[in-house]
Amino acid sequence: MTESADNSGTVEPSSTGNDSTFSQSGQAESSRGRKRLIGIVKWATIAVVIAAIVWQVQILSTDWADDGARVLEKGLAWSWVAIALVTFWLGQLCFALYWRRLVRASGADAPFLSTIRAYLVGTLGKYVPGKALVVVVRTGMLPDAKGKRFLVGGATVYETLTSMSAAGLIGFVALLATRRDLVMNMTGAACIALILNIVVHPRPFRQIAKVVAIPFRRQGDELPVRDWYRCYLRSAPLLLFEWLGSGLSLWATAAAFGLDVGSWEAMVFLTGVAALATAAGFLVLPVPAGIGVREFIVISLLTHWFGEHATAVCISLILRTIWTAGEIVLAGGLYLLPGVSWARAKLADSNGAANAV
Description:
This protein is mostly helical. It has one domain. Helix content is 78%, strand content 0%. The chain is built from 14 helices and no strands. Helix 3 (78-105) crosses helix 13, helix 4 crosses helix 13 (309-335) and helix 6 packs antiparallel against helix 7.
């Protein structure tokens, strides 16, 4: 009886504390392992992309040295180059108008000129690897958004994804209508359209937004994804005009070389090429402005259409020059417009007030 009572009264040492310690250390080790794996994948991806860019630049340099001068000896029709620049600018304006719609759907202030300026100046952020600077610049240049900057940042991400989704769809339809023999390219365009359309749907996008950081967003801030999605569907005509501007720019660039692009089929095909090449370049995030990726697709598809590799190389390089110069001139001109310094001062004041609080 006594022994039984003594045994029953004995308190066994608890292992709860040790188990908790082991669990926490295991979680920390697992977290460190994931971070190391992500870092390895990140730098391996960057290394592969850089190697691919170097390889592509070498090919372009060789092609230019061998055939570029010969093609350009015929001369460029500068009136068509001017048309290529203007149509590119019109397409960029459509992009800016679509972004303004999304910002307004978020409930944030979106004055017309300030929003257009912020969008087009922010476009230069894509020349920084990762392209995240695009979001920061556009959000920072809309000081009237005040406490809703996370909405502007979210709208920027959503605008990019939906625009590239539309690009994939336009590329697929254009190739299907003009060159059904380009099966791999059509498949790639269809995959871009399908995957991104799934991503921007409200339910998947909300889940992704929990993992992917949205600039200026605090825990608990809700994103109006359903409003954005409805705006995306209603803006289908504007999305079409976005990519039509890029397509007409490529069409005019080809015309500047004296090529026969007078048919509707050529215009549809070139619009699809411009859209697909831009979307593919965007998806390779470490590459600034899709350099190399865009040219590879443009050259490949134009060679199939015109039958001249050298001409396709020249068109691709001249198009890159027109678009880059057009973005710099447009963004620089808008940045220097009166009112920007006032906007920067207002943003600084609001940040100072927030820090003081």
